[in-house]
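Data availability excerpt. The first of two example chains:
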Amino acid sequence: MRAQFVLSEIGVGLRRNLTMTFAVIVSVALSLALFGGALLMREQVSTMKDYWYDKVNVSIFLCNKNDAATSDKCSKGAVTAEQKKQIEDDLKKMSIVESVHHESAEEAYKHYREQYGDTPIASTITPDQMQESFRVKLTDPEKYKVVATAVAGRDGVQSVVDQRGILENLFNLMKGMNVAALFVMGLMLVIALMLIVNTVRVSAFSRRRETGIMRLVGASSFYIQMPFIMEAAFAGLLGGVVASVLLLAGRYFLIDGGLALSEKMQLVNFIGWDAVLAVLPLVLVIGLLMPALAAAIALRKYLKV
């Protein structure tokens, strides 16, 4: 009987405040969708880092005869065979070095033509202008500075480049987008909480006569407050369900269908459905508990009869 009464009161409250309940659902859905999207963005950045950092190399570019006139580091002329062998031997002795590959000027020119052969400047480049280099694969990409310190400044070495730096700008951009999403999520969350508190106030005021009678006949505070808390929890749960649908649809549209980024950007290792499904329970739990807690706190002030 008590359960039936509570459920009937929930239905009455939702019908009386239908517009505000809808606003709560929308605001909760948007804030939780942004929250889930921020979590997935962070997971995407982590996945891309793990994927790309395992593939990037440290490139050690060697001096050629043209660098002597343009670079102070190559003032002693092009790298010699003895210098190349010494650098390679020293690299192979380092415990953090997994492999060392020597790329000749001819190989560098071939790779350049494969990538930029259609550009106007490609026709002006000749093999003797390309630099020889060592492509060093590290067991731990984070220890790039160990290699840089060991070889930078040596005779015959023009520059040492960590290819991770090329990716850092992309990762920093994605982190910036993540922070922006969290900021908007926080703003939407505040709006949602304000709407929940206001909805509870209106609902409590409109039913003050019923709650007064319940108090007079000995009903406990918890029993009186339960319909209001359940209303907020139900609206929040609906918002969580909508947010979950938005996250699933967003992942499908961006990666699999619609934009089909997985086909257009095959070099990017995108997060899978398992990452999205792992976030959904958290979204639903927050959607259920957050409005209920906000309603319980509001009722302590606005349900005094």
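And the second chain:
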Amino acid sequence: MTANVAGYLLQLLAGRWLGVAGYSEFASLLAVQLLCAVPALAMQNVVAREVVLGADLRAVRSMQWRCAALVAAVAVVLVPVVAGVLHVGVWAAAGALGAAPALVVLSGEQGILQGGNHFRALATVLAMAGTARVAPALVALALGGGAAGALWAGAAGIVCAAIIAGRIARSTARAHDFAAESDRSTLAGSGAQSGELAGAPGRTGAGGTDDALSADAGSATTDRGLSAQEGTGGSKRGPAVARASRAIGVLPVLRAVQVQAALMALSSVDLIVVRIVLDDVDASRYSLGTIATKIAFWLPQAVGVVLYPRMAQPAHSARAIRDALSVLSVIGVVAVIGAALAAPLAPLFAGQDYAPIQGMLWMFALHGAILAVLQGALLSAIAVERTALAAVTWIGLALEVTLMLAFARTIGTLITTAVSVAAVTTVIVAVVVLRTAARGTAPGSAPTVTSGTAS
């Protein structure tokens, strides 16, 4: 919540300080930065899943750094492309893209905490990262650094946040391992004592058969205790020993990336198209209206964070998916009603230049609420490593861009198009996900038996 509030504050103050003529550049580059954060979002989901399934943390971090290097190389290539397409400065485009590798590392550490069910430490990291990203950018804007200065300051903050998150994740893992080791020692001691007590009355002089049986019983008791502990607590689980010892490739991240890319593109493409079809003033007004979209989209983020580890466990996946979609729908209704009631206050915070969009804020919020439900449905596909369902979202993205470029020439037609396409896409994806969950199969394929290696 702290991270989201900080992000909304940045955009609100940027809209006021940069004005309607300059804010659209900043908002468009933030949209580009969000798209470039797709590998980071996929990284967190993949890492969390691998940790749930018992992957070794050294292998996880090795994969994390390989992905960060790939993202850095792609970002360098994209800088001149983004500058040319959006008609912005190269320095500003570099600031937006420069944060991408650090975001991958940061999200990897967040995934380690999420997969290990260390939600208190994860909340600390999320709040710290949001503050570290926004505070420097606000200082840069206040000092007149413009969009480029704010983006570079934010990128520096993300680098610092990634370093701190790594330290928090490592210290949390060490503390958890120490506690688990203490529990194992206690269980082992109890098992040995039980074996001795059970064997004492039944000792025979002929061959010690009763001793052997009682020792086996004590050992079995200890093993059951250890298995129960490993099955519910840390990152090592009995069935996943082979998985924990193997290297983790980049391919699972790439599969998750295309799912996250489809979702983020569908939620951000309107901010890029708006620079093409509207003038600077209306583009800035539309961009500020999308703050309501982002609030409704990111407000229920904790729902997916908490339920995702359960989605990755076959025994709990179907129930977790139903719970997630239900809660997200309810929160979305509340967000839309809240936006409609708060709309008259928008010009007081953003300025009278933005008064023309206040009557449409509920539609922007509706757009975000629908996308939040879509995100919950797609998370289930990543959790079970079945990502073919993302094709529906890619088709929706292509349709939205085509309709906007061909027909949308006002703020109203743009947001109506975005809401309509998002609604149809979400209904299709949600129906498929719920039906496959009810049948006990993963979205996009027949059921498979989980083994020690990833598919």
